[in-house]
Amino acid sequence: MATGIITPGMSIREQTPLQLAFYRVIFGTETPAGKWFDICLIMVILASVLVVMLDSIPRYNESYALLFLQIEWGFTLLFTAEYLVRLWCAPNRKGYALSVYGVVDLLALLPTYISLFVPQAASLLIIRLLRILRIFRVLRLLTLLDEANDLARALHNSTRKIFVFFSLMMILTTIFGCLIYVIEGPEHGFNSIPHSIYWAIVTITTVGYGDVTPMTPLGQALASAGMLIGYAVIAVPTGIVTAELTLSQRLKKERLIRSSRNCTTCAHVETDPGAHYCRHCGSQLPAPGHQPETEHKETS
């Protein structure tokens, strides 16, 4: 989904030099000015979220309600200006406005303005906490987007295995719930099979609220078995995702090795497939897949 960045096939419009300059700062996360802009933006977002959280505390709200309102309007006007500038300088305005970030930016602004005309909409002000979702821009700023993609890919590849595991766990909790209902019964607080299944889920996940506890020795033995099984609930999904992450990292490393080239001048190993010159000495690199002849000579 578009975020204002120019991508192939995107319907774009011509930008004036001033618009292009703003675009490089606001959307250009790889430029020094863009990084500083994102750092400042993240600090402002965190400050605005902190104000919303403090405003929800009754004793602070009673003492500083007017101050919080003034600060909130300051943040709202600042974010409104930023949103309008993004629309103004984006090469694809519709793409940005309909993107995830664009929608979140707009939703974070609307409640404050709506509360001016609809007093009953004050409860919608909690939507301002959506601003914290914009922190995900920091993934680009810190070049962590690849790692986030690796994690998302590992979770996606693990979906079927995790689904099978949780299906088995649902069957197991149903069996545990039925057994504890038969063993303990309503006289010990297990009023129905669904309520007993709830107890089984709470026990196997090692949450243990304690609102219902088995009283008979057999019921306590069953509860102990459920607690021991509960460790697998944590270990198995974690192991599945970890295995996928490890496989993804190994495949990525193999791709880097296949695309790496040795500089014939300084022997530096270049892993960037798009590089044409050595970043150390500036010499021209061999074409991808080509190895210098000296590497293939056999010693006599």
Characterise the protein shown here.
Strands 1-2 form a two-stranded antiparallel sheet. It folds into 3 domains: 127 residues, Four Helix Bundle (Hemerythrin (Met), subunit A) (Up-down Bundle), CATH 1.20.120; 102 residues, Helix Hairpins; 30 residues. The protein is flat. The relative contact order is 0.07. It is an all-alpha fold and 300 residues long. Helices cover 62% and strands 1% of the residues. The chain has 11 helices and 2 strands, in the order H-H-H-H-H-H-H-H-H-H-H-E-E. Helix 9 packs across helix 10.
Topology (elements, then pairings):
Blueprint: H1 17-26, H2 32-55, H3 58-89, H4 93-97, H5 100-107, H6 110-117, H7 138-141, H8 145-157, H9 159-184, H10 193-204, H11 217-259, E1 261-262, E2 269-270
Antiparallel strand pairs: 1-2
Helix pairs in contact: 1-3, 2-3, 8-11, 9-10, 9-11
Brief summary of the model shown:
The protein contains eleven helices and two strands, in the order αααααααααααββ.
